[in-house]
Amino acid sequence: MKGPFPENTEGRKPSFFARDEEGLTAARARYEPYCAAVARNLLADPRDQEECLSDTWLRAWNAIPPHEPRSYLFAFLARITRHLSLDRCRSRDREKRGGVRVDALTEELIQCLPGGERPEEALALFFLAGLILLRVADRIDQPAWQLEEL
Asked: At a CB cut-off of 8 Å and minimum separation 6, what does 20 contact?
């Protein structure tokens, strides 16, 4: 085997950079253990590691036409894996901090509103009050900010 890819039966080298699926398979066989180590160092959950590896190959496949990292393919793949793993860590931390508890917080805020109104109703009433104030100010020919002081 000479170079990063083994020769196939036809005597030509499969090219990952020409979007050849055999080239992808060969690159995956060669670099997946290293990319798996990168993901394993950042993610504890094996399912997350596997998902990041799958996403790595998809992103590399989609990025190859404009980029051709021939001399630094491992660094290119490791960078993709690292960024995907870090994104997964951030996502997990966000969930742990309660980033998806918006509905519960909204319900708590509704209880703080006078009369138990829904936020949409309170906003509509506030907007309506402003329109009435502007209409009255226009009728009596005074600025609206002076009416608020009365």
From this structure: 14
Radius of gyration of the chain (CA): 30
| Cβ 50 vs Cβ 40: under 8 Å | no
Calpha distance 23→147 (Å, rounded): 75
DSSP state of 57: H
In single-letter form, the type of residue at position 149 comes to: E
Q: What is the dihedral of CA 138, 142, 144, 145, to 10 degrees?
A: 170
Evaluate whether 115 touches 107 at the Cβ level (below 8 Å).
no
d(CA 119, CA 127): 12
pLDDT of residue 123: 75
* 138 vs 87 pLDDT, higher one: 87
The label of the residue with tokens 């050849």 reads 20
Query: What single DSSP character describes residue 102?
Result: H
Per-residue pLDDT band at 2 (split at 50, 70, 90): very low
pLDDT per position as a tens digit, 31-62: 999 999 999 998 888 999 999 999 999 998 88
